[in-house]
Write a structure and sequence with these properties.
Layout: E1 17-18, E2 25-26, E3 30-34, E4 46-50, H1 52-63
Antiparallel strand pairs: 1-2, 3-4
The structure holds zinc ion.
């Protein structure tokens, strides 16, 4: 008998993730790749997870639109 590939069990999705910026546990975080902004020579890709609020803040900072 040949055992064909067993169906790979999908890993149970974690219920939410923790925002790396504010520490909130949110259902949907967005991955923020901090590349070529910070030390790109050291870490090419440093991925963080941000909730939508922090993501927008991050985006605004990235685009330099943060106004006072
Ligand atoms: Zn957050």
């Amino acid at each position: 008998m040949s055992a064909s590939n067993p169906p790979t069990e999908p890993e149970p999705e974690p219920r939410g993730r923790t925002c790396d910026f504010c520490g909130d546990l949110v259902l949907a975080v967005r991955r923020v790749a901090l590349d070529h902004e910070y030390d790109r020579l050291q870490k090419a890709h440093r991925e963080l997870y941000a909730c939508s609020a922090c993501f927008e803040t991050k985006e605004r900072q990235r685009l330099g639109l943060n106004r006072r």
